[in-house]
Specification:
By secondary structure, this protein is an alpha/beta fold. The chain folds into two domains: 136 residues, Rossmann fold (3-Layer(aba) Sandwich); 273 residues, Transcription Regulator spoIIAA (2-Layer Sandwich), CATH 3.30.750.210. The protein is built from 15 helices and 14 strands. The strands form three sheets. A six-stranded parallel β-sheet has the order 3-1-4-5-6-7, with helices on both faces. A six-stranded parallel β-sheet has the order 2-8-11-12-13-14. The longest helix has 21 residues. The two termini are 35 Å apart.
Length: 414
């Protein structure tokens, strides 16, 4: 039995920006008795159906954006007599969809590091289970990625995970539902070892592919102090100290290395943490701004962006990846958006254009009063607006029955 790990994509370019880390982690979790898995990243090349033989096991990792292509591959693989196993964010949240539309024999929910071997063994014995609950394993059980299998000169960025889970519960995000709200941090030793391995393979650019690289905020520490919760305070201080230890060690790596990560806007209030990021050559950070409105809390978060500007100007966090997303009030994908500014003349068309297409690059050039207002008031250097498109009929037909929070997540991530 051969093991195939497929990262679906409807478009292939022969090269890609970032390595699909999940493939190399599951490759590391595949028992040696099955041999080296066959890795197919369709952002590079489309899969060859002829390579899938009866009795093989085909693992397909999906998020919402590539779910439809994943379902096509799943049905094709099952028709060829292979065992089909789905995993990933979308399959974890909606396992029944993978079975109904993707031909899945089994679905792995949650972390696949440990349970993947069991799923393969059951397929080999011809008795796959419908669900394998991977749960949220401890950081000490995270499987090392098999980077020896990565194709050379195909990816711009490698990806290393230092922590799973995020303590926040943003309504538009899936992380706290799939990876949990308890940060599970890897030790700096194993992280640095992996980065050194990637550097020896020729990677200078590394994405720290974390759910939230800033898991402990100053507000968290102040709240634990005010509550006199010594246990919680010590736990938070320990997590924070580990972050600083990691960044100090990143700073000792070759000077030509560059890192990128994801953080929440609260990091803008923590100058000590930002300075450590700068020293560690974390040159970019993806910061999600859910919306821009009259709400004072949102205004405060947008003003916090300005705290990052000095670091950008003097060579610290260059190109900070600031992004704002419009939010529609109609889950079917209409062009109804909340107010993005105080100006009554601002309209969705000013940002999205009459056709509703995404406007990328410099959105200020022809974006009318809305873009000019955002540029001048909030000092945003670059961002993207997204117009949500409806999915084909038959996909997620149970959408109306979901809770408002989950429905909002589904709408934002289609």
């Amino acid at each position: 039995m051969k093991v195939h790990l497929i990262n679906p994509s409807s478009v292939s370019f022969g090269t890609a920006v970032i390595t699909p880390r999940w493939q190399y982690v599951l490759a590391g979790a595949t028992p040696r008795s099955f041999g080296d898995p066959i890795l197919v990243d369709e952002t590079l090349f489309q899969m060859d159906p002829e390579r899938i033989q009866p009795g093989d096991a085909v693992g397909i990792g999906i998020h919402t954006a590539n779910a439809l292509r994943g379902y096509e591959i799943g049905k094709l693989a099952r028709e060829r007599g292979a065992y089909v196993i789905f995993g990933g964010i979308h399959a974890t949240l909606y396992p029944e969809e993978a079975r109904e539309l993707g031909g899945a024999h089994a679905v792995v929910k949650g972390d696949g590091d440990i349970v993947w071997a069991k799923a393969l063994a059951d397929c080999r014995d011809g008795v796959p289970k419908p669900i394998y609950a991977g749960g949220q394993i401890e950081a000490s059980d995270f499987v090392q990625a098999r980077w020896d299998l990565v194709p050379r000169n195909r990816y711009m960025w490698a990806s290393v995970q230092t922590v799973r889970g995020c303590p926040k519960h943003c309504s538009f995000c899936s992380v706290w539902r799939t990876d949990g709200q308890r940060p599970r941090q890897r030790t700096s030793d194993v992280v640095i070892e992996e980065i050194v391995q990637l550097r020896r393979l020729g990677f200078r650019f590394v994405a720290l592919a974390d759910d939230n690289f800033y898991p402990v905020t100053l507000t968290d520490l102040n709240l634990a102090t005010q509550q006199k919760n010594t246990t919680r305070l010590n736990e938070l201080k320990s997590l924070r100290a580990e972050r600083f230890e990691l960044m100090a060690r990143l700073a000792q790596l070759p000077e030509d290395m560059v890192f990128f990560t994801q953080i929440t806007m609260e990091a803008a209030e923590d100058i000590e943490f930002l300075n450590a990021m700068k020293a560690a050559r974390i040159k970019g950070a993806l910061v999600g701004v859910e919306s821009v409105c009259r709400c004072e809390k949102r205004r405060c978060h947008l003003r916090a962006i300005r705290h990052l500007e000095p670091l950008s100007r003097d060579g610290g966090l260059q190109s900070l990846g600031k992004r704002a997303r419009t939010e529609s009030t109609n889950h079917r994908g209409s062009s109804s958006h909340p107010a993005l500014a105080d100006s009554a003349s601002a309209s969705p068309e000013a940002v999205l254009g009459p056709s509703g297409n995404v406007r990328r690059g410099n959105p200020f050039a022809n974006s009318g009063s809305m873009g000019q207002l955002l540029q001048s008031r909030f000092h945003l250097e670059a961002f993207e607006f997204y117009q949500v498109k409806p999915w084909p009929a038959g996909v997620c037909s149970h959408f109306e029955n979901l809770s408002p929070d989950v429905r909002r997540y589904r709408h934002r991530h289609r």
